[in-house]
Design brief:
The protein is of the alpha/beta class and 339 residues long. It is built from 11 helices and 19 strands. It has helices spanning 38-46, 50-53, 118-121, 124-136, 152-163, 178-187, 200-208, 242-249, 272-276, 289-300, 319-327; strands at residues 2-8, 11-16, 26-35, 54-56, 61-63, 66-74, 86-89, 98-102, 109-111, 144-148, 170-175, 191-194, 226-229, 232-233, 256-259, 262-263, 280-283, 310-315, 334-338. Strands 3, 6, 7, 8, 9, 18 and 19 form a 7-stranded mixed sheet that branches. It has a 6-stranded parallel sheet with strand order 12-11-10-13-15-17, sandwiched between helices. The chain has a two-stranded antiparallel ribbon with strand order 1-2. Bound molecules: zinc ion.
Length: 339
C-alpha cells in the first residue's frame, strides 16, 4: 500500500509499504481523507513528539491522526463494528491507504452518520479539540472573548460558539495572517487583529474598554473574560509570546486563559499579572468521548460548514507538498491528504 513515511525534519516520502495485518482486537480502515495537524508540523519541522504521532515502521513512521475512512476488515474479537462502517478513528498512521486500529470501546472509533462526508469527518479530531478547549473557558453570553491563532483549532472554537448559540459581547481573533483572519471574520468573529501590523493590547482596550480600577495600575486592564491561546510557542515566529499577552489582557479576578497551543521549547513568563489579577490559566488537550459524539452531532445537524476550513487537498503521492503547504500559514488552513 502507499503511505507517507516520516524519517526526520522536512523528510517525508511517499513509499510502498506492507499492508498491515490486523490482530484480533483491531479493525483495518481504508483511509479516505487525513488532515495534517499542528502537532504533525512540530514533528515535520523539528522532529518533536514523533513517537506520539506516528505508527512506527522498521524504518521511519506513518503520521496522521485526523482521518476518516471505511472499515474493510475486523478482528475476531470485534463485535461493535463491521466491514463497510464509515468511521472516524483515533490511532496514528492515517497518512496511508490502510491503517490498523486497536479498539478501545467507547473511546477511539466513532461511526459516521451518512450525511457527514469523509472530508468533513477528517476535521472531527480538531473539531472535538476546539469543542473541548471552548468548554474549558466556560464561555457565557456577554463575555469578551479573545482567540489567538486562526488555525483549525481557533476557527473551530468560533464555529462551536456559534453552533451552541453562545453570544459573546465581543469575539476577537488575533493572528499574523490576513487570509486566516478574514476567514475568522466570515465565520463570525466581531473583530480581527493582525498582530504584525497593529498593537494588540491598545486595540483590545479600544474594543472592550478598560476595567475601572480601585487602585493604581501599571498598565490599563482590559475587560477580557476568556482568552484562548491556540498558538503556544512557535520557534520561528518572532511575535511576542502569546501566553504572556493573554495573561496581561485577562480581566482582573475572573479572567481565564485556556492554553491549547503547543510549546516548541521552554519559555520565560512574567507572572506578575497572573498573580496580581488572579488570572486562571488552564491547559487544554484532546477531548472526551462525549465531546467527540457532540461534535459529530453538530456536523450531522449541519450546524456549520467545515469545508470552509479545508484549504487544500493533496493525493498521498504529494505528501511532501501537502506538509510544505500546511507550513505556509498564510496560504493554508487545513490541508487534507487523500490516499
Ligand atoms: Zn491533531
Amino acid at each position: 500500500m502507499k503511505a507517507a513515511v516520516f524519517y526526520g525534519p522536512r523528510d517525508i516520502r511517499t513509499e510502498e509499504v506492507e499492508k498491515p495485518k490486523i490482530q484480533d482486537n483491531e479493525i483495518l480502515i481504508n483511509v479516505k481523507a487525513c488532515g495534517i495537524c499542528g502537532s504533525d508540523l512540530h514533528m515535520y519541522k523539528l522532529n518533536l513528539y514523533t513517537p506520539l504521532l506516528v505508527r512506527p515502521l522498521k524504518k521511519g513512521g506513518i503520521p496522521g491522526h485526523e482521518y476518516s475512512g471505511v472499515i474493510v476488515e475486523v478482528g475476531k474479537n470485534i463485535k461493535r463494528y463491521k466491514v463497510g462502517d464509515r468511521v472516524v478513528a483515533l490511532a496514528n498512521g492515517g497518512m496511508a491507504e490502510y491503517v490498523p486500529v486497536p479498539i478501545i470501546y467507547g473511546y477511539n472509533v466513532y461511526k459516521l452518520p451518512p450525511s457527514v462526508s469523509y472530508e468533513e469527518a477528517a476535521t472531527l479530531e480538531p473539531l472535538a479539540n476546539s469543542y473541548h478547549a471552548l468548554m474549558k473557558g466556560k464561555p457565557f453570553n456577554g463575555a469578551n472573548i479573545v482567540i489567538f491563532g486562526a488555525g483549525a483549532i481557533g476557527l473551530g472554537i468560533i464555529q462551536c460558539l456559534k453552533a451552541l448559540d453562545i453570544e459573546p459581547n465581543k469575539l476577537i481573533m488575533i493572528d499574523l495572517s490576513d487570509s486566516r483572519l478574514n476567514l475568522a471574520k466570515k465565520l463570525g468573529a466581531d473583530e480581527i487583529i493582525n498582530a504584525n501590523s497593529e498593537n494588540v493590547f491598545s486595540r483590545i482596550i479600544k474594543i472592550v474598554g478598560p476595567m475601572p480600577t480601585f487602585r493604581p495600575s501599571i498598565i490599563p486592564m482590559p475587560k477580557v473574560d476568556i482568552i484562548y491561546d491556540c498558538v503556544g510557542y512557535i520557534k520561528d515566529q518572532k511575535a511576542p509570546l502569546v501566553l504572556q499577552q493573554a495573561i496581561n489582557m485577562a480581566r482582573q479576578f475572573s479572567g481565564t486563559v485556556v492554553v491549547h497551543g503547543v510549546f516548541e521549547e521552554s519559555v520565560r513568563l512574567d507572572l506578575t499579572f497572573m498573580v496580581g489579577k488572579e488570572v486562571t490559566v488552564k491547559g487544554s488537550f484532546g477531548f472526551t468521548p462525549l465531546e467527540m459524539r457532540k461534535s459529530i452531532k453538530l456536523l450531522e445537524n449541519k450546524k456549520f460548514d467545515r469545508s470552509k476550513i479545508i484549504s487544500h487537498e493533496f493525493p498521498i503521492e504529494k505528501a511532501k507538498d501537502a506538509f510544505e503547504t500546511q507550513c505556509k500559514t498564510n496560504e493554508s488552513v487545513k490541508v487534507l491528504i487523500k490516499a
